[in-house]
Amino acid sequence: MLSKVGLHCYNFDKGTNLQFRSVQKANEEFASFTMYYITVEAMDPSNGSPVTFQTCVWDAATKSNESSRFITKVCRIKGSGARKRKAQKKPQKKQAYFKRYQVKFRRRREGKTDYRARIRLINQDKNKYNTPKYRSVVQICKCFLLLSTNKDITAQILSATITATGRLLC
After folding, report:
1. If we measure between CA atoms, which residue out of 69, 4, 76, 77 comes closest to residue 34?
2. In CATH, which of 3.10.450.10, 3.40.50.1980, 3.40.630.30, 3.20.20.70 is domain 2-79?
3. Which domain of life is it from (predicted)?
């Protein structure tokens, strides 16, 4: 019944003649009044096509519950061509804030350079090709006769390079 009330109000406001076919979905919400969200399938007799229609009907009953007032708040046709939303297109960053960054943004956008991969390669590059490495070399001053303490162990950090033969030069 409430779906027909919403459809009747829509026909009255818009001057259409939609005819009720069936209820697709109905949700109910309780507050100080009862609110019904109803999705209805209706038929448009002018072109003979089915239309999905949505309405929101309030049942504002009086305190003595003698009579009910039905208030329709939202009446609309769902999925009509009038309310189609265009897909949002993200604006393309064409200009850099500083000119020296402009090539970087263009190469990243065109997929020519993966800057995150370059950073990883640079970090790997620091660990090869005759760059000085820091290894810890532990010198033991006394034998481990007393195992309860390690104050006699000293550590020394030296700079070393790895040569092609695999020897460690200090």
Report:
1. 69
2. 3.10.450.10
3. Eukaryota
Where do runs of H (alpha helix) occur along the chain?
A: 2-14, 102-109, 115-125
Q: In what order do the strands lie in the sheet with 133-140?
A: 133-140, 153-162, 168-169
Integer Cα distance of 122 and 77 in angstroms: 59
Residues 6+ apart with CB under 8 A from 66: none
Do 51 and 75 touch, CB atoms closer than 8 A?
no
The ranges assigned to domains in the chain are 2-79, 130-170
Q: Which pTM does this prediction carry? A: 0.36
State residue 116's pLDDT score. 78
Q: Which residues contact 27 (CB under 8 A, 6 or more apart)?
A: 36, 37, 38
pLDDT value of residue 81: 46
Pairwise CA distance, residues 28 & 156, whole Å: 77
pLDDT per position as a tens digit, 46-77: 887 787 877 777 776 656 665 666 666 666 66
Residue 14 has pLDDT above 60, yes or no: yes
